[in-house]
Amino acid sequence: MARLLRAVAVLAVLVGLDLALPRFLNPYYLRVLMLCGISVILAVSLNLINGFTGQFSIGHAGFMAVGAYGSAMVSLHVGQHWAAALAGVGIPAVIAQGAALLVALLAGGALAGIAGYLVGLPSLRLRGDYLAIVTLGFGEIIRVLITNIEAVGAARGLPGIPPWTTFFWVGIGMLAVIVLSLRLANSTHGRALFAIRDDEVAAEALGVDTTRYKVLAFVLGSFFAGIAGGLFAHYNAYLHPNSFTFIKSIEVIAMVVLGGLGSVSGSVLAAIVLTILPEALRSAQEWRMVIYSLMLIILMVTRPQGLMGSREFRWPWRHRPAAPPAPAAGGGA
């Protein structure tokens, strides 16, 4: 009963913020806030792969692209008709659009999860740099395919996507990936992931099915990357292949490493900081990216374990430590 009341209270807060923010917040600040939320979903989802299992995936933008284009196509070809039909029988438009968006997001997330499985099953038998090369290749293959497929707009981009993403849906996505990550970390499955991260050979010797668990983390991370892509698509109402380049994957990796490998709280904090920081430095004009890069370098030199290290915030639903300490970033392969 307490959990149900807590869930209802959270939903009520999200609905209240969803109604209030567009009225009282500057549109520019609201956009930055929305992008922060999407970045949090991306960073925490990649943390399941890079932080929890110690794999080095640098193709997260590819999974985001699969989810973005997949959910956009569902909305364009099916979702809009469903929303109109629901509205036609007297259901409020906001509920009809929300239902259509939810189906589109789940479809995009499922497509990204399937892509993660297809990539992960053969490639996660690899380790270290070899896995990084495979995931990098996957991300670039997805981007090149999108650029050359006319059905999804090719190099022109895909316009006309219904702008259904609101703060409520971004908040739901954030809560889902954070709660799942913390619950997973506190489970026996999570301990198996951490064992693989700390010493894969020893984990195999103890009977842990390392390939199975790595594929599990890869599929979960890919699914939520697809959800983030779907939210991004339905917020911008337009998609272009240039939004999913190798640089986007590096940005998400920077969030995970800066926050602290294995720390969900660190990924949340770093995603917010690294999304706001470039905007805060816009007054520096051409020096903006130089200052941004120098700040990242200084932080990683002075605190290689990341902002949070292996620590976590005191989340309301968390009752015990989530993750054991992770090796410092750059401390080894």
Report on the structure:
It is globular and about 60 Å long. The model has no long low-confidence stretch (mean pLDDT 87). The chain is 71% helix and 1% strand. The protein has 333 residues and is mostly helical. It contains twelve helices and two strands. It has a domain of 214 residues.
Attribute tags:
333 residues, globular, single chain, two-stranded antiparallel ribbon, mainly alpha
Could you outline the blueprint of secondary structure elements for this entry?
Layout: H1 2-24, H2 27-50, H3 60-88, H4 93-123, H5 129-148, E1 158-159, H6 167-185, H7 188-198, H8 200-205, H9 210-236, E2 238-239, H10 246-259, H11 264-280, H12 288-302
Antiparallel strand pairs: 1-2
Short description:
This protein has 333 residues and is mostly helical. The protein contains twelve helices and two strands.
Largest sheet: 2 strands, antiparallel
Q: Assign the structural class, choosing from mainly alpha, mainly beta, alpha/beta, alpha+beta, or little secondary structure.
A: mainly alpha
Report the count of strand segments. 2
> In DSSP terms, counting alpha (H) and pi (I) runs of 4 or more, how many helices?
12
| Sequence of secondary-structure elements | HHHHHEHHHHEHHH
